[in-house]
From TrEMBL:
Protein name as it appears in the record: Anti-sigma B factor RsbW
NCBIfam families recorded: PRK04069.1
InterPro entries named among the record's database cross-references: Anti-sigma-factor_SerPK (IPR050267), HATPase_C_sf (IPR036890), HATPase_dom (IPR003594)
Superkingdom, natural source: Bacteria
Record's keyword annotation contains Kinase: yes
Length: 150
């Protein structure tokens, strides 16, 4: 697959379209030679980001808006995925980089906090931007590529 390329996808902010995003991710990541496990991790993280947009960005309106997804192929071994909407902005509580959910029970975790925690656990980096809607920017490097450079 050509290095430094991108694919853009815009789908209605409805649950039945999240599978289309997952299928697109699978196709791109498979062509980049990500492992099955890495692809499954990315699919979970992207689903969480898309579901947050579907559920929260447009206040549950049936024809509320769209979810835009951009897949950026960076070099031979890194994929950056941006999931964005133009709905109501989401502001994560606390410092996103130092999520302290370890040792907490499910009841202690705020609504939405578990999804962000999952994204952070499954991806190499996660950034939430809240200007004119919400954008979640996640990236993943191929594990085999990381081992080869050590």
């Amino acid at each position: 697959m050509k290095n430094d390329a991108n694919v853009k996808l815009s789908v209605p902010a409805r649950p039945e379209f999240v599978d289309l995003v997952r299928l697109t991710l699978y196709g791109i990541a498979a062509k980049m030679n990500f492992s099955y496990e890495e692809i499954e991790d990315m699919k979970v993280a992207v689903s969480e980001a898309c579901n947050n947009a579907v559920l929260h960005a447009y206040g549950g309106e049936e024809n509320g808006g769209s979810v835009d997804v951009r897949f950026d192929i960076l070099g031979e071994d890194e994929l950056r995925i941006t999931v964005s909407d133009s709905g109501e902005s989401f502001v994560p509580s606390g410092d996103l980089q130092s999520s302290n959910l370890l040792g907490k029970s499910i009841e202690e975790i705020q609504s939405g906090g578990l999804g962000l925690y999952l994204m952070q656990a499954l991806m190499d980096s996660v950034e939430v931007r809240t200007q004119q809607g919400t954008a979640v920017v996640m990236s993943k490097r191929r594990e085999a590529a990381g081992k080869a450079s050590v």
